Amino acid sequence: MKALAISMHEAWLATLMAGFMSKTTSKQKLFDFSDILFRHFTWIEEEMVVAKEGYDYNREAVPIKVEKLSVILHNIIQRLNQIDLQLAVVSPDLSHRITHDIKYITGVLAQLPDEEVTAFNTLRKLDDIELSSEATDALTLFLFEESYKEYELIMIYNYLKAHSSDAYINRIFQILVDESFFHLKSFGDMMAKMGILGVPRTIFKEMYQVEDIEAFFLAGIDEELAAKEECRKLSEAVGSNSPQLAQFFDFINNQENYHISLMKDALAHWEKDKNV
Amino acid sequence: MTVDAQLIEHMMEPKNYGTLEDSNSEGLGKNPQNGEKVIIYLKVIEEEGELVIEDISFQAIGCSTTVVAGSMITQEAKGLSFHGATNLITATMKILEKVPPEDAACSEMVALALKASMETYTLRQTDKDHPSVTYQITNDCTPKEEGNQ
Question: ipTM of this model?
Answer without folding.
Answer: 0.84
